Amino acid sequence: LSDVEELVVVKPTGEKIGLSEKGAIWLRVRVRGKSSHAAMPESGTNALTIFFAFSDRVRGLFGTERKHDLLGRSSCTVTTLRGGETPNVVPECCEGTLDIRTLPSVDHDALLSDIDATAQEMERETPGLRISVELTNNRPPIGMDEGAPLVRTFRSVYAAQGLPWKTCGVRYFTDASVLVPSLGVPFVIFGPGDESFFHQPDEYIRSESIVRIADAKMAGAIRLVSIERGHDPAKFAAVPFGGGGALHVGALIKEVGLKAALVPRFPCVTSALGCVIADIRHDQVQTVNLPLAG
Question: pTM for the full model?
Fold first, then answer.
């Protein structure tokens, strides 16, 4: 991946251009308190009550945070919880998961240090209490400048296609959270579909949206190897191949400014279908190691 110059991540954004992505921290939290009869709760230390108090304090660490224009605010959500065995006993132990989503302004190392300090503080407040925090996922937040060349390229593509230009923030994490910090390359996140339908039984994507996004992505790639390298697309003709190549070439001519398109009579010959229907040919190759004469 050392040759990667720009990164385009295709995820549901409602055809908007994603310029920022929330970070994610998953914590497995185990609480050990003290059991007692439920009729005498003051004699015990309720692990479930402590767990929710701990999650509230973690949430409070973002109390002075400034709202992000595209991402809103950081969040801390209880996503799993297991504890208690019988209805008349104060639970001694519980285990749960906190899903924390962070803004680009949040330093994860500093936040994790504050969370550990919070657990230690609560332990000091209640003798015998133990809170263990295990980090199971750590994805940093990332952000992108709207004036970056890659973003301007997509803005030009959207303008040529007549699409409304809207930017957004992505609240879920993607592969960009791993690749961008590692490679240090500019990125955008965009694609068909609405993120609000994630993990829903009626999740769907409109077919026309898929075509528009495919056109925009191909146009961006053509611009990268032409305009951004000093070549005039108006001097070149597109030669589409594959079963769907001709479907998109008209939009590419319009969006990129290509001179024309030369559509093969049978463009599908170079597609997967072409591989299936083409005549079978066997090539045999053998390596021979011999000294060259003279």
Answer: 0.73
Query: What SS3 state is found at 37?
Result: strand
CA dihedral 7, 8, 9, 14 (to 10 degrees): 150
C-alpha–C-alpha distance, residues 63 and 98, integer Å: 17
| CA distances (Å), origin 199, targets 172, 194, 195, 203 | 12, 11, 9, 7
Please give the Cα distance from 39 to 87 (Å, whole number): 11
From the number of C-beta atoms within 10 Å of its C-beta (0-12, 13-18, 19+), residue 189 rates as buried
CA distances from 16 to 24, 166, 194 (A): 22, 5, 10
Q: What does each C-alpha distance from 75 to 53, 72, 175 come to in angstroms?
A: 15, 9, 20
Question: Model confidence over 147-169: pLDDT tens digits?
Answer: 998 898 888 888 877 788 999 99
Instruction: Say how many C-beta atoms besides its own lie within 10 A of residue 91's C-beta.
Output: 24
